[in-house]
Amino acid sequence: VGNSCVLTCPPKTNITTVTWKISPKVGGPCILGYRADQNKTDRTNCSDSMNWKFRPDQDPALEIWQVGIDHEGNYTCEVVATEGNFHKTYHLTVLVPPRLTMYCDDHGNPVCKATAGKPAAQILWVLESNSTPKEEGHDNGTVTVLSTFTAYSTNVTNTTCIVSHPAGNQSMTIAC
């Protein structure tokens, strides 16, 4: 999320047409088209955050700026050239790193919270704990995970939680 993304088409010479057919999970379909004989591009129902990376006659790649969850979906490039028709489909999944916070609850137990990640984060504790994480799903597809540290021993002073996520791992330490 937040980065740019470039999706490439099969590189061919003597291109007649190039069409990007985009079916996002949210919202209606979008089509970007190029006709070589008229050197003309067309766009139907596409947001300003996506366009040809360069010139479709030289490189028919699609670029998406500031990728968001709403960009998730299927992206198919269709190239018609003198050598034939070629297709390439992408299934775009957007990773959202969770926001990590840690605090002490009313009983003095450390709580680790990974907010609004996609997919849901995994929370682990450096010291063994019998904690059961709780998950809360959000309308935009992100998930908040909350884990309260329950120590087997009362001698614990500093507690570290580790949040494991495909967009990157994080850790935080607290003394309650």
TrEMBL record:
Report a single Gene Ontology molecular function. signaling receptor activity
Pfam families named in the record: C2-set_2, V-set
Name all Ig-like domain ranges.
1-93, 112-175
Q: How does it sit in the membrane?
A: Single-pass membrane protein
* Name the UniProt record assigns to this protein: MOR1A protein
The record's comment on protein family reads: Belongs to the CD200R family.
Q: Which domain of life is it from?
A: Eukaryota
Q: Does the keyword Zinc apply?
A: no
In terms of one coarse class, where is the protein primarily found? membrane
